[in-house]
Amino acid sequence: MDCIGSLTRQTLRPAETILALDRNEALVRFYKDQMPAYVKIVVSDGYGLSRARNTGIKNASGDVIAFIDDDAIADEQWLENLVVNYDDASVSGVGGLITPLWKGKQPIWFPEELFWIVGCSYKGLPEEKSVVRNLIGCNMSFRKSVFEKVGYFHEGMGRVGKKLSGHEDTEFSVRAARKIAEIKIVYDPSAKVYHRVPRSRTDLKYVARRSYAEGFSKAIFSSQEANAGKALNVEKNYLRNLLSASVTDRLFGNHDSGSILQIPVLLFSTAMVLIGYIVSKCMCTQEQSSS
Which among 67, 164, 187, 243 is least buried, having the fewest CB atoms inside 10 angstroms? Predict the structure, then answer.
């Protein structure tokens, strides 16, 4: 309800607001009782984040479709700052800054470079408006014509229940770039949303699970790309900066004890991503061999 409420306070009001739900009768009944009449509720033909997004897209009438997670709150100028970028006819997609809303205080051991673990913008993203490879699903938008040309989000990727897999937003952006000549996807940090982070996502167990799932998803994504090395350049640069700058800066810079505690967490997360990637690659190889 906080998310829906934030959309009513936009300086640029949305033409329509769509709530996409999994096919669960109790869930659908609950939200039909809770939602204002102007919220259009649509029900997916299955389960998972990608299916829900695709259902929303197919039921949307606008020229630009913006996405926000149900546990996020939009800044009052969110839509206005997204949409102004579409004045440039070459722009196909726009996303913005995702700031964490911690339940309690941010743990001192949780580094900004790992904010992607809780679905937020992380240290390493551009600090000014920039052209990027892909957007983060909690705060992204695309022209509807892009979906008409490229297709929809890959329903074999993305979260389903407690399964923490992802990369459906990355896969879509890369596929769009492959199919649309001179596509431009813009990251504009002035278009802000605030993403709730419950305490359950601020322990090392969750860091491990989410990091492993990230690596697992990256392997699936790379196995579907003809030029996997180029497709993962963003990840390679992130890892290079993580090890050469983030860790060494904390080791040799003038930092407090919290920054020092962040070093093993950075290395632990990186190791879990690598393990997930290797496991997924081995499974993909076995499947290809058996087929």
Answer: 243
- pLDDT tier, 139 (very low <50, low <70, confident <90, very high otherwise): very high
Are 103 and 199 a contacting pair, CB within 8 Å? yes
Q: Any residues with CB less than 8 A from the CB of 3 and at least 6 apart, and which?
A: 68, 69, 70, 71, 72, 73, 74
**What share of the chain has pLDDT > 70, as a percent?**
92
For residues 214 and 232, the answer to whether their CB atoms sit within 8 Å is: no
Mean pLDDT across the stretch 69-87?
97
What global pTM score does this model have?
0.90
Name residue 101's beta-bridge partners.
Answer: 196
* Relative orientation angle of helices 168-179 and 204-223, to the nearest 10 degrees: 30
As a whole number of angstroms, the distance between CA 62 and CA 181 comes to 23
Q: How many residues are given for the chain?
A: 291
For residue 199, count other CB atoms closer than 10 A to its CB.
11
CB atoms < 10 A from the CB of 247, how many? Answer: 19
The predicted-structure confidence for 249-282, as pLDDT tens digits, reads as follows 888 776 677 788 899 999 999 999 999 999 988 8
Average pLDDT for 11-30: 93
Distance CA 205, CA 287 (A): 29
Domain boundaries, the chain: 2-290
Whole-angstrom distance, CA of residue 181 vs CA of residue 200 = 42
Structure tokens at 237: 């640069």
Give domain 2-290's CATH superfamily. Spore Coat Polysaccharide Biosynthesis Protein SpsA; Chain A (3.90.550.10)
Burial (Cβ within 10 Å: 0-12, 13-18, ≥19) of residue 29: exposed
User: Could you tell me where the DSSP H helices lie in 197-256?
Assistant: 204-223, 228-231, 233-241, 247-252
Between residues 231 and 66, the one the model is more confident about: 66
